[in-house]
Amino acid sequence: MTIADPVESPKSASSGPLFDADEERLARRKRTEEIAKYTLPIIVMVAAIWYWDRLVVWNEIPHYVLPGPGLVLETLWEDREILISALGVTLKITALALLVAVVGGVGLAILFSQSRFAEMSFSPFAVILQVTPIVSIAPLIFIYIENRIIGLLLCAWIVAFFPVLANTTLGLKSTDHNLRDLFKIYRASPWQQLVHLQLPSALPYFLGGLKIAGGLALIGAVVAEYVAGTGGIGSGLAFRILEAGYRLNIPRMFAALILIAATGVLIYGATSLIAHLALRKWHESALKRE
Amino acid sequence: MTDLSPLTSPASPTSRDKILRMEAVDKTFSGNVVALRKMDMEVRQGDFISLLGPSGCGKSTALRLIAGLMRPTLGRITWEGGSTADDLGVVFQEPTLMPWATVEKNVWLPFRMRGQSFSSVKDRIDEILSLVGLDGFGARYPRELSGGMKMRVSIARAMVTNPRLILMDEPFAALDEMTRQKLNDDLLALKAKIGATVIFVTHSVFESVFLSDRILVMAARPGRVIQEIAVPEPYPRGLEWRTSKRYGEIARETSDTLNSALHPAGGLKG
Questions:
Q1: CB contact under 8 A, B96 and A187
Q2: What average pLDDT does range A103-111 have in this prediction?
């Protein structure tokens, strides 16, 4: 055989496409990973719930210490009216806080990108708000703001807006300098530069910030409810957890906790979906490579 | 829509309309760094001028001054009849495309900045894409294209408005040799078709001799023009020109001039 002769493949007799062993292995691994991506977390979750159930049964743990998963599910169903109404309140605060965080964060980021002096003046305060724990600010907020809903909203906003602000500011400043020059050469107005260049450039950064802010808005809403809960407003999920704790209704605590966790996952899924839809055609983060 | 008719063949450079004039232009950056000293240049309709020189000789600074991205410290740059946003097309070393926009939306950019709707210039965009060999690629995103194709989009964007002057800052430096030669050929064909006037920055002696009718050889520290070399070969140019004796002679002359600029004590040893 000369060096130019093709290497005979074991499949060469068949009429299908030819693959070498490496390609076949890679394709097999890819298929396995695709299946494992969805099945593995489910298997782990089912195993953990099964172990939780067995732990309660085998050790005869009373339900006011640790309820089994069956009892938690039962409580979730039986208390659905209270819990779903509480979930509605928490969701409303979270969604509003996220909306205000997006508007405020993007607005402030645009201001920072247009004026270095504005950034110098205000960014230290944004950092101070971000690094100060919300649990230490919230009591003061509820002293000075009479309307509890606005107080809750403010707390959740303080926690959620910084990632939007920081990421969007970074994105607005990361515009390709040659494209900036090109827009100047074409005598684009500041508005045209912002709309047609800076905002699209900042979109992946903003969406990264939105994913973080979604979770933080929920955390902010829940923490604010904890602080405000004993102060007169008692309808969010956090309040229901506090109330159930005082009554030693541990199954309801777990049920409310499950709802909060599910809401967080849902928010993350929704923001991830938005990011995917917005970036899937052009951004590296959304592209699949062979 | 802008006129696509080819440039009438000029008999001599002086008979063509003057577009731009640089007179004794100096550019000094903070820290007293002299980027450019006493640069004179006259650009006429249909010229293909190469700025050739080592890194730091002020080639790109000269382009940025012409583009109006910075002002000269001394001297002046005058556009015949005044300058407008329609006067310039620019191609950078990188394709510099907007990744979020399709090919045709990228090419639309100069029109868009002038407030012209996409539908009103769609025919012209299709026409220029066809001229650069990207027929049928209008709806693709830049990520779907090769390096050479992205550069073609960038060239199409620079030429779509038929500007009076096109500035090209080492546009093919990052491409492989075969793609580079192909793009050089296509650039000349395109220039002949639309009658473009080009100032082309390059490090490559051979590229400058192949493309230009005038080469301004520049030296660094301080950046300045040390010699102007005429390339009197008529267009169109192709493989015959690239392999001709005359091409070799001019390349040799240009190379010697460049060498003397780099090694003023008597040229490269060895």
A1: no
A2: 95
